[in-house]
Amino acid sequence: MQIFWFFPTHGDGRYLGSPEGARTVDLDYLTQIARAADSLGFDGALIPTGRSCEDPWVTAATLIPATRKLKFLVAVRPGIMSPTVAARMASSFDRLSQGRLLVNVVAGGDPVELAGDGSWLSHDERYEAASEFLHIWKGVLAGDKVNLDGKHIKVSDAQLLYPPVSKPYPPLYFGGSSDAAHDLAAEHVDVYLSWGEPPAEVAKKIADVRARAAKLGRTVRFGIRLHIIVRETNAEAWAAAERLISRLDDATIANAQKTLARADSEGQRRMAALHGGSRDKLEISPNLWAGIGLVRGGAGTALVGDGPTVARRMQEYAELGIETFVFSGYPHLDEAYRVAELLFPHLPDRLKPSIGQQPAGEVMANQLLPNETRQAAAS
What is the Cα–Cα distance from 355 to 378, expressed in whole angstroms? Predict the structure, then answer.
């Protein structure tokens, strides 16, 4: 079970849809999040992409020296990036970070944003272009000389002179819910990511991608993208969820849903269908809450509960085949610590502090806590 965190390069704060409690997302703040995720034992971190975000490659590169082991899940954008330029970027980043690059393939789902970036392809054409892109990208990173006269991309004698550390290339992650997306996942990617739908729906997607990959003689691993609200008790967690959307009014929700509805993304359609733009029934599955999707595009659901409860829900997804959980929480610096402190102790494969570095709490009256208390706190 791998646990990833998130860099909020599009903004952060305590309340959705409100400037109240908002934080300046600058290099200092992102560095704090990076160091926290690295030291707390998160395996990697996702950096979002799009015109509302800081550039993910520049952001990730600035955070390499602030971290030691943390891997960076960074987006490539078929259709608006050259595959060979993207391959050189990936190879350089992978070498300079000593093998800490993971690549997130983002075909895009907002026609307005894509048009602003010069891409006028239809939904299915974007996935055709992505397949050609990945054929070239994977080939040159693996050391091949690639020629392709494709429908959307043409290259002649494409090659890479400086190879990556990761062999044959940095692992490819990808999420999409349409037939075209599942075909792309089956043919090209290493890890298929689902947004946080109820387990029964995620199981259907896993089975479909797995079957399509098997027909091509491939295997695919699976992950899930979720927010998380974990507290010491379930009641506290649900209260925190309600606080997160407590500054939202109906007009803000309606405006956000109108903007999100222009997307031709099947995944976005499925996210919107979970709540229907209404606050009436946001717990769509036990401890799975759709409140964030009222105003946020993309991943819109959160696991809500105390540590043991959230761990059980994660295990339900793991039993379906989910190996990687990509989490986020508001605000991201604070919630990284909450997840590590309240959830990690209930996940059997999370690393515990080394001997001599167990958390012992504040020294009281010039004395350490009793040994048995320290041992219990570290167990």
Answer: 10
**DSSP category for residue 162:** S
d(CA 289, CA 287): 6
Give bridge partners of residue 285 from the DSSP assignment: 288
Mean pLDDT of the chain: 93
In the block, residue with structure tokens 């703040």: 29
Question: For the whole model, what pTM was predicted?
Answer: 0.93
Distance from C-alpha of 222 to C-alpha of 156, rounded to nearest angstrom: 34
* 349 within 8 A of 1, measured Cβ to Cβ: yes
Structural domain count of the chain? 1
What are the C-alpha distances in Å from 278 to residues 169, 290, 291? 43, 10, 9
**CA-to-CA dists, residue 19 to 297, 301, 329, angstroms:** 18, 21, 17
* Close Cβ partners of 331 (under 8 Å, ≥ 6 residues apart): 8, 12, 13, 14, 21, 23
Is 376 a residue whose pLDDT tops 60?
Answer: no
Question: Tokens 């959230």 sit at which residue?
Answer: 310
Classify residue 78: in a domain, yes or no. yes
CATH number where 286 lies = 3.20.20.30
**Residue 348: which residues within 8 A CB-CB, separation 6 or more?**
none
Domain membership of residue 367 (yes or no) is: no
Is 366 within a domain? no
Q: CB–CB of 304/314 below 8 Å?
A: no
What pLDDT, in 10s, does the model give residues 14-71?
Answer: 999 999 999 999 999 999 999 999 999 999 999 999 999 999 999 999 999 999 999 9
